[in-house]
Amino acid sequence: MYRLAVETANSSCSVALIHGNEIIDFIIDETPSQQSKMLFTLLNTILESNKLTYDNIEAIGVAVGPGSFTGIRIGVAGCVGVNIAKNIPLIGITNLQAALAGSLDKNTIKPVAVILDASRGYIYTELYSNELKSIKEPEMLKIEEFADYINNENVFLCGSGSLLVKGQYDNLNNKVTTAEDVAKALLLIGKKVLKPYPCVPLYIREPDVTLSKKK
Question: Among 60, 162, 190, 203, which is disulfide-ready with 157 (CB 3.0 to 4.6 Å)?
């Protein structure tokens, strides 16, 4: 059977297709903030190009954040709609897990700190052991608070915000996560390396909303 992976929590929109333990297809639309228009276009395209329907899909891995609040809602809500219509199980995958899985897939010689750019001088981060087990809950920190968060340990770094922190760290990569990374995380969940997350948005911080004042 086949599994799908969906990533809309960044400015782009992407989907990936897994068959067995292999990622066999990947499509991305990098037009900023077009997830609501492109999600089902990409899903339909990847299914049709591989001569599949939703009946062939046994599960969907969904990026649940942290990231763009609007993008997260679009991805989660869209996949919940597929779940309701087609009864396909959903597996939540955080973008921190996806960034980790996109960087490595086996034990390391030291812990790994995943760092995503949260903008305005902040980062999202999560610390993993050298066996890729989460040892600190995801948090949003000021960039300068990172060293205290990891207790000044010697760690590997990965994720879109990994170049923001100062210090002598080994950087695995600083790429933005896509559905390909979500698919890699889904494979690690299948191997019991990572744990699935509920398919609900992971915001970590409150949305930036300015309420209009009533006159």
Answer: 162
For 39-50, the pLDDT digits (tens) are 999 999 999 999
Cα–Cα distance list, 164 to 29, 30, 120, 127, 137 (Å): 26, 23, 12, 16, 20
Is 0.85 surpassed by the pTM of this model? yes
Structural tokens at position 104:
């490595």
> 169 with 156: CB under 8 angstroms?
yes
Q: Rounded distance, CA 115 to CA 165, Å?
A: 9
Cis peptide bond N-terminal to 66, omega within 30: yes
- Quickly list H helices, the chain: 35-49, 69-86, 95-101, 146-149, 179-190
- The residue whose two tokens read 């942290």 is 66
Contacts of 14 (CB under 8 A, 6+ apart): 6, 7, 8, 26, 27, 28, 29, 42, 178, 179, 180
Strands 170-173, 2-7: pairing kind: unpaired
Quote the CA–CA distance of 86 and 95 in Å, as a whole number: 25
**Distance between start and end Cα atoms, the chain:** 58
CA distance 61 to 186: 6
Band the pLDDT of 206: cuts 50, 70, 90: low
For residues 120-151, one letter each, b for 16 or more C-beta atoms within 10 angstroms of the residue's C-beta and e for the rest, the string is eebbbbbbbeeebebeeebeebebeebeebbe
**Which residue, chain included where needed, has tokens 């299914």?**
47
In this predicted structure, the answer to whether residue 205 has a pLDDT above a threshold of 90 is: no
